[in-house]
Write a structure and sequence with these properties.
The protein is α+β, with helices and mostly antiparallel strands and about 325 residues long. It has 8 helices and 13 strands. The protein folds into 2 domains: about 35-115, 2-Layer Sandwich (Phosphorylase Kinase, domain 1); about 120-320, Transferase(Phosphotransferase), domain 1 (Orthogonal Bundle).
């Protein structure tokens, strides 16, 4: 009788840039599984350290569940950062911050974080489609982000990664929800407790404050710089630096002033007061910025309103009235 060999598992190889091949690790499929009572329905986002799922729970209803990636479950630093994010989220309680529901370990290394399901879309996506935004909408968004950040600062936490991709926005209600304390830091943290080595910065280069590039522990003023960058983007549809590579961006952040707001986009002009507020928030020296993020947001709101009043009898207002007919 002929002997039959058991079929071997199909092995998928990936070609590296050097021409060699490595075995591809299949992506863990958690959709449909239930973790600590949360049934994962579909994946809605992913990053280098975790995946985010829309999930359902008998008590909490629809929620978002973040799960640490399988390849990092034995990485002590990755686990510590994931757990720290969860506990920071528990400490920051505010209407404009996604609410932390539960943090736990459903199995060996299967760390998860359940948070409220925020309606709307990522502000990053909304901005790409609609910027420049109307002055009143910009003021509403920036004020809510500032309030959320101030709540974090009040309990000694600096977010360090403020950017449109970490903000949920519901255009229908203009409600803002701040996400992701994954690389936040405690201002009272001892040097030996830090998860980022001195000399290495964390954050997103396009939004990071210049003083953060040294890798030293930053102050709440760094979040204000990031908030001012977001305001610049919402108002103009552009970023304050025009670098095309990370190396060039790094150099510009350290050595060059940001592009003035009124030079960001041809034909787009703002009042001197609006430009002053945004550019002060983008000062390279943290001491030259506003006392806190809320003060920045209030000054911007006032300047934007004054700009609208000053223009009330001008061409822009007449054009708006035509389009409203």
């Amino acid at each position: 009788m002929a002997r039959h060999r058991a079929p071997r598992d199909t092995v998928r190889l990936l070609r590296t840039p050097t021409g060699s091949y490595v075995r591809a690790v299949p992506k863990e499929n958690l959709i449909g599984q239930t973790i600590a009572g949360y049934t994962l329905r579909n994946e809605v986002g992913e990053g280098g350290t975790s995946a985010v799922f829309r999930a359902e729970h008998k008590t909490h209803g629809e929620v978002a569940v973040k799960v640490l990636r399988e390849k990092l479950r034995q990485d002590k630093t990755a686990v510590a950062r994931f757990v720290r994010e969860a506990h920071y989220g528990e400490r920051v309680v505010h209407p404009n911050v996604v609410r932390t529901i539960e943090v736990g370990e459903a199995g060996p290394g299967l760390h998860f974080l359940a948070i409220e399901w925020a309606k709307g879309e990522l502000l990053e996506r909304y901005v790409k489609q609609h910027a420049p935004l109307p002055a009143d909408e910009v003021a509403t968004i920036i004020t809510q982000i500032a309030d959320a950040v101030q709540a974090a600062h009040a309990v000694g936490i600096v977010h360090r990664d403020l950017k449109p991709d970490n903000v949920m926005y519901d255009p229908a209600t203009r409600q803002v929800k701040l996400l992701d304390f994954g690389i936040a830091t405690d201002t009272d943290m001892a040097p030996e407790q830090r998860l980022t080595r001195a000399g290495f910065f964390v954050g997103t280069l396009m939004y990071v404050a210049p003083e953060a590039l040294s890798g030293e522990l930053v102050t709440p003023a760094a979040d204000q710089y990031s908030l001012a960058t977001i305001a610049y983007l919402l108002l103009s549809g552009c970023l304050p630096f025009t670098a095309k590579t990370p190396r060039e961006m790094f150099s510009q952040l350290l050595s060059q002033p940001p592009t003035p707001l009124n030079s960001a986009k041809p034909g787009l002009k703002f009042s001197a007061a609006v430009e002053h507020v945004v550019m002060r928030g983008l000062s390279k020296d943290p001491r030259q910025r506003y006392p806190d993020s809320v003060a920045f947001a209030k000054e911007l709101d006032t300047a934007l309103k004054q700009g609208e009043i000053a223009d009330s009898g001008g061409l822009l207002s007449r054009m708006k009235s035509i389009f409203r007919r």
